[in-house]
C-alpha cells in the first residue's frame, strides 16, 4: 500500500510540473564526460549529427547534460570510424558505445514507477519471446477447453466467435493504458531534468516543426554525410535508415488500423471483421507488411553490427523488442490468411499473445528510445535557436 501511495504521489508531482531530482552520475556518465572533453578539443566530427553542435555549447558535462546528449545520439557510428582517438588509441574514444550505455541508464533512472526501472536490465530476447509464448499458451488452453485449437470455423466466422469483443477490450485496454501512462510520466521526468540545461525556454512553433521533421525523416541516421550508418564495417549504408522507416511507419499504420476499427465499431456500429477494400484492412495489411519487413531487416542488421558499436549488454533488450515486433506483424498477417479455416483459433492465440507481450514490455524495453530521443531532439531544436553561451562552435 505504501508503494502504491508513493506512485500516486509522484504521478501527482509530475502532473503539477514539480521538479524531479536529477540522478547522481555513475561511471557511465563520467566516461561520456571524459570523452566529450576530448571531442570538444578536437571538433573534427562537429558536422556529423546534433550531438556535436550541442556539445560545443558546453565547457563541462554534468549528469543532466550527459543524459540529454546521450539521447540525441542515434548510434550511426560515423564519429567512431572518423575518430583518430578511437580504440586502440590510448584515449579510447568511442562515443556511440559510451552514449549507448548512458541511454540505458536514463531509461532506468527516469522510469515510472521507479521501482520498475530495473526491468530494463532483464527485458531480453528470451523474456520477450517467453512472455509472448506464455500468454499465447494461456489463451490456447482457454480455447482448447472451449472446443479445440484446430476446429472448423463456420463460413463468415471470425475471432469474436472465440473471444468476445468486450473480453478482448477488458484484457488489452488496461495494459495498453498503463504502458502509455508509464512512458508519458517517464519522459516527463526526463524533460524536467534536461529543460534547465537546454535554455529553460518553452518550445516555439518553428522549433517544434523542425524537430518533428527530423523525427519523421530520421535525419540523423544519414551518418552526417548523407551516406548512412556504419554496420558491419567502416562502409556506410542507408539500410538501417530504410528499415527503421519501414518499422516506424508500419507500426503507425497498424495502430491507425486499430483506431479506425474502434471508430467503426463504436461510432458507426460496424463490427469486425472487415474485408478489402475497407480502411482498417488496407491500413492493417500495408502496415503489417511494412512492420514485418522492417523488423526482420533490423534484426538482420543487428546480428551484423560492428563489435565496437553500441553496448553489448543491451543486445538482448534490442533483439527482444525486434522479435516482438516481427511476431506481432507476422502473426497478424497469418491470422488474416487463416480466417475461416481450422487454423484460425491457434493463430489467434499466438497473435494475441504477441500483442499482449508487446504492450506489457513497451514502457520497459527498447520502445522507450524513440520517445526519449524525440524529447531530446525537441529540446535541441529549442536550444540551437538561443545564443551560444560559450561563444564558439555551431551547427
From TrEMBL:
This is Citrate/tricarballylate utilization protein. The keyword Transmembrane applies. Coiled coil: none annotated. NCBIfam families: CitB, PRK15033.1. Keywords: Membrane, Transmembrane, Transmembrane helix. It comes from Pseudacidovorax intermedius. InterPro entries: Citrate_utilization_prot_B, NarG-like_sf. The chain crosses the membrane at residues 125-145, 165-187, 246-267, 282-301, 321-338, 344-364.
